[in-house]
Amino acid sequence: MFCFLFRGNNQMKMTQGRLFAGLILHTKKKKKSKTAAKTTIPTSSPTTKKGAKEEPQEVWKWWEEEKAEGGVKWTFLEHKGPVFAPKYEPLPDEIKFYYDGKVMRLSEETEEVATFYAKMLDHDYTTKEVFNNNFFKDWRKVMTPEEKKKIKDLKKCNFRDMCEYFKQESEKRKNRSKEEKLKLKEENAAKQEEYGFCIMDGHREKIGNFRIEPPSLFRGRGEHPKQGMLKRRVQPEDVIINCSKDSKIPEPLKGHKWKKVQHDNEVTWLASWTENIQGQIKYMMLNPSSRLKGEMDWKKYETARCLHKCVDKIRANYQEDWTSNEMRVRQRAVAMYLIDKLALRAGNEKEEGETADTVGCCSLRVEHISLHNEKDGKSNVVEFDFLGKDCIRYQNAVPVEEQVFKNLQMFMENKAPGDDLFDRLNTTILNKHLQELMEGLTAKVIRTYNASRTLQEQLDLMTNDDDAVPAKMLSYNRANWAVAILCNHQRAAPKNFSKQMENLMSKIKDKRGQVKEAKKQLKEAKAAFKSEKTQKNKMVYEKKKMAYKRLEEQLTKLEVQATNKEENKEIALGTSKLNYLDPRISVAWCKKWEVPIEKVYNKTQREKFRWAIDMATADFRF
């Protein structure tokens, strides 16, 4: 498996955290505790933090039911529709807008859009020319004719009063009284209860996103060409409702009507609308813990598991195609190799200027790779440097097969830096070919397969039977880390990371002092018991022994936490864990090694993967 390509780098980077004394290598091995946490953990904790018992929730074990025929997703669906953004409340009269140094009264719609900019006045976005130009262009579209005549230069606009007003309002919200916070919480809970659930086939299912996003300024990721444009307010006339014919149709806002009401039981969405910036369709969907979402996840991972049966044949086929007489076949074969080896995304074609300049494997340009054929043993190395999904930069230098290297040289011949590397390939062609190789196979399935296989293999290598739970969790996070590296799931280190580490190391220092003192007291108690074996001395000795053991465990936990924090400061472990790793691998690992499942998945994640928690046994293998 290709995860072994990363093992060397993983081990080097993992040593960063080993500066902390008391790392696994220096920690005494812990024997299995007879009182280890049970592995059959409920999907949600039975008690709250304050100890109050929660009411048991209905669990729909849909995975034990027969699957519906064809493409039918449900037979009955009823819901209340989406919650729209509240109406705009005009600013108080004392909050002024200035143009060219003079107070100017704005119409309500013009003022509303101005507040979007004012709220971002101290943000980096408002220093960017593209953002400012797009905002000003869209802002002028909502102005009255009189306002358009006067407001012609954004640089002459003064939003400072508005900006300060919203800062003060933000502080007021932060400093709300306990009663005000409780009232708001109750209002939100009531709204959730009314709009946040639907009835599907006799079961009450939670809705994921029932609130429509309020109007604002588009930000995008990276240097998006449309940043600063106005995201318009969505009205019922923009929304399509999907529900059963025999259900109660949701009521739109007073004075409005829905764009359309349909009854399509072969789709999973409850409502849809098109946003105005990129023309993308937005959906109101069920919560990740719902049956529909769970079935999709289960099917995704089962398809990836099926790939294991034919992956060797597929790899042999694309290797044979590296020497094909047809250039399109060679390009497809090399792309498949890179997707398989490096877990690259296939990449979708985009219109120029529509989105940020992000690419995937099929849309790589000549400028995105460099070829190195050195004489020092590091031959046939391909260096990648491009912006991937969400504008995350992908930088990697990997050795490749000699024929792949020669093909890449051929693909680059007589091409400019901005030309397509695979000029006879796109994602549609690639996925069509993959479907011919295995039913349901796509580039994403290959990525999911390699990610899950990597986790399975790394867990097998890293988990030590004698380790305590914190040490086992460090092994789990390191296995997850290997997957995140493979899939390029990066993040910027938290701004307060240094302070967090400083506080953690201070705790470790204090705890070491406590352990040292406890060890000294234990020796003294042991000596006293040996010299005079009284019941009192025995009780003191046992008490000191338990205290020392407890402090040692606390120290180990803090040291492992510091190591884990250091190693993962720039890696997003959650992305792969929630989207690319078969949860049954993690559940089986927890059950096999007696690790509480809540150590791996929080309450929300346990609800999302309750099917896997119920389904997977300790001997499950991906």
Automatic annotation (TrEMBL):
Extent of Low complexity compositional bias: 36-49
PROSITE patterns assigned to the protein according to its UniProt record, in alphabetical order: TOPO_IB_1 (PS00176), TOPO_IB_2 (PS52038)
Pfam families for this protein: Topo_C_assoc, Topoisom_I, Topoisom_I_N
CDD domains, per database record: Topo_IB_C, Topoisomer_IB_N_htopoI_like
Residues forming coiled coils: 167-195, 501-568
GO biological process: chromosome segregation; DNA replication; DNA topological change
Molecular-function annotations in GO: DNA binding; DNA topoisomerase type I (single strand cut, ATP-independent) activity
Domain DNA topoisomerase I eukaryotic-type: 217-594
Keyword set, alphabetical order: Coiled coil, DNA-binding, Isomerase, Topoisomerase
EC number(s) given by UniProt: 5.6.2.1
Catalytic reaction list: ATP-independent breakage of single-stranded DNA, followed by passage and rejoining
Active site: residue positions: 580 (o-(3'-phospho-dna)-tyrosine intermediate)
Protein known as: DNA topoisomerase I
Organism: Dreissena polymorpha
